[in-house]
C-alpha cells in the first residue's frame, strides 16, 4: 500500500477511481518517463514495465521511505530501469531535454512551490514530450486532500501555461479526478 496525503492508496482503490492504463496509453517502449512526487511508485512501476529495458523511469519523492519502498518493489519485479531519488522536486532536474513523458499523480498541490516544479519539468522534457497532471477534482468527497488545497482544472492549467506549456486537453478521469495534458512551448 502506498501512502498519499495521510491515507493509503492500494492498487485496487486506484483502479476503482481511474484506469492507469488509459492514463499512460501514450507511453511506449524505449521512452523516458519522469514520475515527480512518485510516492512508493505505483505509476513508476507501471511505466517501467511499459518503457521496457530500452527505456528509463526517473522517480522523485520527498519521502525517503517511499523511495525505499519503490526500490524494493522494483527489485522484486526485476526492474532495472528505474532511477529513484529522495528529495524535493523543487531541487531536482534529472536531465535536460531528455524526458518524453513528465507525470504528476495527485501531487501538484503538495509541492512547496508548484511553479518551480513545473519549470523543472520544462527543463527535463523533450520538445516533443508530453506532460500529464492526474489530479483531484476540487470537491469534498470524504477522502483525499481537503478541497481548499486542491487545484481546479483551470488552476492547474494556468500553472502549466505560466511554466511554458500549452494545455492540449483537460478531461475527466473517473468521478474524483481529472487529467490535464500539456506539451512544452518552444
Notable features of this structure?
186 residues; alpha/beta; Rossmann fold; seven-stranded mixed sheet; two-stranded antiparallel ribbon; 6 helices; 30% helix; 31% strand; disordered N terminus
Describe this structure in words.
- Helix content is 30%, strand content 31%.
- It is an alpha/beta fold.
- The protein has a single domain (29-184), classed as Vaccinia Virus protein VP39 (Rossmann fold, 3-Layer(aba) Sandwich), CATH 3.40.50.150.
- The longest helix is centred in the middle third of the chain and has 13 residues, at 64-76.
- The model is unreliable at 1-7 (pLDDT under 50).
CATH fold category name: Rossmann fold
Distance between the termini: 39 Å
Give, in spatial order, the strands making up the sheet with the most strands.
5-4-3-6-7-9-8
What is the total number of structural domains?
A: 1
Helix amount: 25-40%
Can you say what the CATH homologous superfamily is? Vaccinia Virus protein VP39
Number of helices: 6
Structural class from helices and strands?
Answer: alpha/beta
**CATH uppermost class:** Alpha Beta
**Integer-rounded radius of gyration:** 15 Å
Amino acid at each position: 500500500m502506498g501512502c498519499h496525503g495521510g491515507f493509503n492508496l492500494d492498487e485496487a482503490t486506484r483502479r476503482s477511481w481511474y484506469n492507469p492504463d488509459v492514463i499512460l496509453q501514450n507511453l511506449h517502449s524505449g521512452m523516458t518517463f519522469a514520475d515527480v512526487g512518485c510516492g512508493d511508485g505505483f505509476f513508476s512501476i507501471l511505466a517501467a514495465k511499459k518503457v521496457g529495458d530500452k527505456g528509463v523511469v526517473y522517480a522523485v519523492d520527498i519521502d525517503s521511505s517511499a523511495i525505499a519502498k519503490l526500490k524494493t518493489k522494483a527489485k522484486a519485479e526485476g526492474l532495472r530501469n528505474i532511477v529513484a531519488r529522495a528529495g524535493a522536486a523543487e531541487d531536482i532536474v534529472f536531465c535536460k531535454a531528455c524526458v518524453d513523458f513528465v507525470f504528476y499523480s495527485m501531487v501538484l498541490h503538495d509541492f512547496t512551490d508548484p511553479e518551480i516544479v513545473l519549470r523543472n519539468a520544462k527543463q527535463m522534457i523533450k520538445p516533443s514530450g508530453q506532460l500529464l497532471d492526474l489530479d483531484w477534482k476540487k470537491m469534498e468527497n470524504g477522502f483525499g486532500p481537503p478541497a481548499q488545497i486542491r487545484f481546479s482544472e483551470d488552476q492547474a492549467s494556468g500553472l502549466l501555461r505560466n511554466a511554458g506549456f500549452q494545455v492540449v486537453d483537460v478531461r475527466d478521469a473517473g468521478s474524483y479526478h481529472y487529467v490535464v495534458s500539456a506539451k512544452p512551448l518552444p
